[in-house]
């Protein structure tokens, strides 16, 4: 325990040093703001959810996101993102007709406020509300729309040919310090990464240790001002029973012209939580394959993505996994299949089916099967 506390103290010192060095770079550099770069997307979705977990759902949803990027100087940039949504960090979806009044205006949210400092070609430091600096092969632990609060770094580079090595990590805030002197919940992450590249093949593997601090004994947390946790994590009297300190293995393997396909990517995520009280409920696995175009950007591009997952109840905090899969619960298993086709430049159509099962656990939904069908029309700009 003493060694663990010492490691946490060292991590806090490292974050302070990185922050101070970043501030020092601002003092030395001349700030010259130019015109920003703009990017974003708009997606319209029809969605059907049926099964025994809750009442069936049939709804239309939209997603609109706009990001501006400002170059402060040669080493520092800032990105600001505006999006639809309810404030849930895992989703920028806006359900049509869900406002207080008919045709009521939407309230946009700032889902990105990221300062990036490029210390040298190998080291990048991020702070604020940022895209994750961690390598993730899937959404088993983290939803792809989730942006992290805190300070993170990426060190190393991927070699164009042969082997490469790097390290990612950061200190992230889940809750702030509270009255009475109790500490806020934190996440400490460290992830060595190994890459290999050849002419028609590349692979990437990362082994990450995530240490959640001050979670056990804390009231169930939500991501939009409401309690959305505890639906599948172990609780006692509304408080978390476990701290979550998973070891997570992420890996991807991409081949060109395999079986005559343009690009084939195999991806996997494995989770072992070393401290959850019940060792029968603290693991997770996702296996997937994606074939077709590397990206769907022009007319005629296509991509098929298939994955299977089994995520036990206390493998990770249940406020972070993919929100489309049983609303982001843990304690679930099942298959996700999607097909995306480019119908014009930067315009695509996606049809997705999710066939999920709620695992046996302490919830009224145990044993329920849930089917989700989504039809998306998306425009990127």
Descriptive notes:
The protein has about 375 residues and is mainly beta. It has a single domain, classed as Porin (Beta Barrel), CATH 2.40.160.10. Helices cover about 5% and strands about 50% of the residues. The chain is built from one helix and 19 strands. The protein has one helix spanning about 1-30, and strands spanning about 35-50, 55-70, 75-85, 95, 110-120, 125-130, 150-155, 160-175, 185-195, 200-215, 235, 240, 245-260, 260-275, 285-290, 300-310, 330-345, 345-360, 370-380. The strands form two sheets. A 16-stranded antiparallel barrel has the order 1-2-3-5-6-7-8-9-10-13-14-15-16-17-18-19. Strands 11-12 form a two-stranded antiparallel sheet. The longest helix has 27 residues, at about 1-30. Residues about 1-10, about 15-20, about 20-30 and about 225-230 have low confidence and may be disordered.
The first-to-last residue Cα distance is 50 Å
- Give the strand order, joined by hyphens, for the main sheet: 1-2-3-5-6-7-8-9-10-13-14-15-16-17-18-19
Write the CATH architecture name. Answer: Beta Barrel
How would you state the average pLDDT, rounded? 84
Just give the CATH class.
Answer: Mainly Beta
- CATH homologous superfamily? Porin
Our Rg estimate from Cα atoms comes to 21 Å
Number of domains: 1
Helical coverage, percent range: under 10%
Taking the sheet with the most strands, its summary is: 16 strands, antiparallel, barrel
Q: Which stretches are low in confidence, meaning pLDDT under 50 for 5 or more residues running?
A: 1-11, 13-18, 20-29, 223-230
Structural class: mainly beta
- CATH topology name, in short, is Porin
